[in-house]
Amino acid sequence: MLILSGFSALDIEQPTKEELEASMPAELITEIISALNTAYDDECTDKASYFYEDGVTADSFLMGACDPDKLLEKVARWIPDIQKAFVIALNAVYTPGMAPTDIKVDTTATYDLQKAAQQLDNNWYSYSDYGVYLENNQGFPFFQVFPDDDQLARIKENPEEFFLVNIAVKS
Fold first, then answer.
1. What's the CA gap between 100 and 103, in Å, rounded?
2. How far apart are CA 50 and CA 167, in angstroms?
3. Strands 130-135 and 2-6
4. DSSP SS3 for 132
5. Are the C-beta atoms of residues 113 and 90 closer than 8 Å to each other?
6. Which residues 6+ apart lie within 8 Å of 33 measured at CB?
7. Strand partners, 51
8. Containing domain of residue 63, as a range?
């Protein structure tokens, strides 16, 4: 799961750019993953699922403080990538002109379509490919699939306060 989050959402003191560029401290990685894991456990729909923390290293992160342009580029592609995944999943199940009775049922392709449709509807679940854990307008952080307009504005204004991390989900 590719997660977009920020230090304030996790109640973690934001390190300086210099601290992050020198070498991302192992303690910071542990603190971020622990906070995200707690949030995930509170909100996940499949209680047998969990973050596979062992595979998370400094290379799993993209810190806005270190590369704000790259972070903003990835955030700008977030929804188009979800839309593209939906079209790919739909095309795997249905082609124009196909008789409805020719659609295969209960397949990995229909499961992929279900997942893609949920994400397109901003319906986050345990095995989403994308997760945004940021505060809403009332200041309460929660998981969703893509950022809302207010969150996007905050990210564009202060990309150094945000980061991306890729974490595998297992069950």
1. 6
2. 10
3. parallel
4. strand
5. yes
6. 51, 53, 56, 165, 167
7. 169
8. 2-170
Q: Give the torsion through C-alpha atoms of 53, 58, 61, 62, to 10 deg.
A: 180
Rounded Cα distance between 151 and 161, Å, is 12
Distances (CA, A) of 160 to 70, 74, 127, 140, 164: 11, 14, 27, 20, 11
> How many separate domains does the chain show?
1
pTM above 0.90, yes or no: yes
Q: What is the sign, positive or negative, of the torsion defined by CA atoms of 2, 155, 70, 118?
A: positive
User: pLDDT by residue (tens digit) across 73-121?
Assistant: 999 999 999 999 999 999 999 999 999 999 999 999 999 999 999 999 9
Alpha helices in 66-163 (DSSP H): 68-93, 108-120, 149-157
Instruction: Summarize pLDDT for 14-26 with one digit per residue, the tens.
Output: 999 998 888 888 9
